[in-house]
Amino acid sequence: MTAARWPQAPHRGPATREPGAPARAAARLGPALALVIGVEHARAAEPVRLRYEAPAECPSESSFTERVRQRTAHLELASPSDLARSFTVTLHVDTGGVVGRVDFVDRDGVPVSRVVRGESCDEVASGLALVTALALDAVPTETHPEPPPLEPSPALAKPPQPEVPPPQQERPVTRSAAASTRAATAGFGAGFVGWAGPQGGLTLDAFLAASFRPEGPSLRLSAWHWRASAEDGGREAVFRGWGGRLEGCPWVFVRDWLFAEPCLGTNLGLFRAEGVKSPALPQPETSNLFWRDVLLVGRLGARLGRFVVVEAQGELELPLFRHRFGFDDPSGAPLGTVFEVPAVSGGAELHLGVRFP
Fold first, then answer.
1. Global pTM?
2. Could you tell me which residue, 266 or 136, shows the higher pLDDT?
3. Which of 54, 76, 150, 159 is the right S-S partner for 45, CB 3.0 to 4.6 Å?
4. All structural domains of the chain
């Protein structure tokens, strides 16, 4: 009896496979594929929008963008129509140096702000470019572990500094800046005053002026002396005055090295009239009066360098009293008026001063 044989499949190579081989192959390729996918994700360029604000003496926007490109290969500037993340970079110069700040939203949607302080704009701009490049190279936490906090380079490392207000906010004026706007001027002058005698007289004065701001107001204190004389029928009289002046100038108009200021002032002092002994006036007399008036002053000046000041001024004077001076005959009868204090008079003076500090 012949045994029946079942038909067999033709031989096409090794038919035996080790159980679980496909799973182990996938396990060996998985980490490599994940690494490739992760690297591609980290290196993918994302369109971003840079907003850059800095003083004129700092690097320009194009220079800052180039510094970011030198530190990362993942910078792609977005077009105006693209929906992209924004990096806002600002630089601010103050008395302590330069402060820079970059604000952005990271890939996880968390607002981030970094501040860098340095001695120069160039130094701070390079530090902000590094911070921006590191932010562009970062990847979401779902793909890679959270990166360590961004740190500036050792050359830019500074102690933590308080954030400064945005440039558009007015900074408080420091004591040194306020002091630099104040100035004082001391000097002396000479001129002519019409109220010192019948034909006017010569005057000398010394002054000290203080201005609180370049555009005013200012105050001036002066000490003065004037002298005049008069002659009538062989008789001579001398008029002298000593006193002080106080002026207030509400505004100062400055243009380059020239300045002008209107002022209101007052003179207070002693006015003396005395006769000169002569055969025609054997018994001269002396009169002393308290002088007081109101002055309108217009002053034009020039600053020669940093310290020297030259001034020319005109004055309109209104006395606050009236008085007449004259000679008497031997019997005491008046011979006429030699000088009468005018109701309105004028004068002009020149001054040379030194400005400090």
1. 0.50
2. 266
3. 76
4. 44-156 (3.30.160.100), 181-356 (2.40.160.20)
